[in-house]
Design brief:
There is one protein chain. With 153 residues, the chain is mainly α. Helix content is 40%, strand content 0%. It is built from 6 helices and no strands. The chain is elongated. The protein starts with 5 loop residues before the first helix and ends in a 6-residue tail after the last helix.
Length: 153
């Protein structure tokens, strides 16, 4: 039995990280009962996986696809549409948003100074105390108890 090394496999799979991922995935598959493509020689699944990569009995691309498929949680199948939707003639297309500037309203612009002058000229509303409704009448059960002479204890 010949000893397998990483150098025997690196020329088959260029990246050492990819080599570790592929070999580990293949070793797990062998442990679960996948068919062995080389002589077993009483080796462990990790050694068999590395020997399979070194001897190229299983293409690295196939192992990579198997690894990706095993990691995916949701597999989307992109099926082509039977018939593409027809394109509307230009005359029948709807007008959207600001496509026609002649019918759009003009937006007024105001300088910061003009905005400040306009805000200063506004009359403030009368202050209200907490709990007062829009009509000026107090709201809530606490006020009703207080007005009736009960302190709520």
């Amino acid at each position: 039995m010949a000893r397998i090394t990483v150098e025997d496999c690196v020329d088959k799979v260029a990246n050492r990280f990819d080599l570790v991922l592929l070999a580990a995935h293949r070793a797990r598959a062998l442990s679960k009962g996948a068919a062995i493509t080389i002589e077993q020689d009483n080796d462990k699944p990790a050694v068999i996986a590395l020997r399979e990569i070194a001897e190229q009995t299983i293409p690295a691309g196939d192992m990579r696809e198997g690894l990706i498929h095993s990691i995916q949680k949701q597999v989307e199948i992109d099926e082509p549409e039977a018939v593409a939707a027809p394109v509307l003639p230009h005359a029948l297309r709807p007008m959207l948003g600001r496509d026609d500037p002649s019918i759009d309203a003009k937006i007024d612009t105001m300088s910061e100074e003009a905005l400040l002058r306009a805000l200063e000229q506004q009359v403030p509303e009368e202050p209200s105390f907490k709990g007062e409704g829009p009509s000026g009448a107090p709201q809530g059960r606490r006020y009703e108890r207080f007005a009736a002479g009960h302190d709520g204890s």
